Amino acid sequence: MKKRITYLLITYFSKSASREEIVELTELLKDEDNSFIFKSLVRTNYVIDRHMLDFDTEAEKKKILEKIHFNEQSSKRVKRLNFFKYAAVVFILFGLGFFSYNYNTSFVETKQQKVNVVVDANKSHDVLPGSNKAVLTLENGDQLVLGKEKKVALKGVKQEGEKLVYDQLSSKSTIAYNYLTIPKGGQFFVQLSDGSKVWLNSDSKLKYPVKFTKDRPREVELIYGEGYFEVAENSEDFGAHFLVKTKTQTVDVLGTQFNIKAYKEDKNIVTTLVEGKIAIESGGVRKNLRPLDQSTVTADKSGSLTVEKLKYVFDEIAWKQGYFSFKQKSMEDIMVVLSRWYNVEFTFKDVTKRNKTFTGVLDRENTISQILINIKKTNEINFKINEKNVIIE
């Protein structure tokens, strides 16, 4: 039943549902449990795309339930990008691990099949997913290892589970900086002293003050890696502007949510705005971004800046939600992403496989073999896992 509701919701939101499918969905929505799923899906979708900040799910549900006049038949041609977007949202909502979209057909429910992914018979040799872990470097150079079983006791800092929360009432008068370093195979969350929240992806490093100074811009630096920022609005205690610096750009923020990807080996720094408004400065050029805008700044000295409008931002922020999202990504690019999260090395024994592409959403909680099995379902690619090295044949 869950698979059927999943399919009907995707077809409805992507405007590809037939008359019969809308009737079926109408009946299913009379059940309160299914109604709750529908409301959650609507809110999830609008959070992802930020087309609207306030959406009346009851009105949308009523619109379906009261639908009397139907078109005899919806268009048979599914808009591919819309279908992919809503499929991604539904699968995240239901917590499913994988889906793929075949560009020559409609929604594809993948089935378990025998695939050629070779792993040592001893499951301990499979590579587990990353976890919440980091290294906190204090002003005096001391380093503290953070993780599930490791607690820290610092004045003005609370470790709530597997995240750091800095005290807004800290009495520290001088500016002291901390560094939070996330290794490969890790991720971590930190709440800064002004209430701003930062989610850091694998292989990332953030520099920030223990406490922001009143009436001065709040400034942090993403030294390298990837971070999702949810910036608190200014107050009487904190400066209005929030600045995020990277190697060749500065992001000027006024209360917003955005993602920055600035890995050491990347040729470009990519900033994606989810909500609010930011300004990007690089190479003497300043450009304002609106929701769904994505800026690209070259990581070289020129710092060339360009901005484009995205149709949706899910691919850019999926990691924060616990997923990988790939749309026509090359195997080479995908392996770079997987290497950070699983802390493994990939070797292409057959170099022609580098340009093979894959489209799908994968659960970051899966082991490396589970991820590779799902990729294999839509590609003629074989993998061999040898401890921390994955060979692509």
Automatic annotation (TrEMBL):
Keywords: Membrane, Transmembrane, Transmembrane helix. Residues 323-392 form the Protein FecR C-terminal domain. InterPro entries: FecR, FecR_C, Ferrdict_sens_TM. Pfam families: FecR, FecR_C. Residues 182-278 form the FecR protein domain. The chain crosses the membrane at residues 83-103. GO terms for molecular function: sigma factor antagonist activity. It comes from the Bacteria. Gene3D superfamilies: 2.60.120.1440, 3.55.50.30. This is FecR family protein.
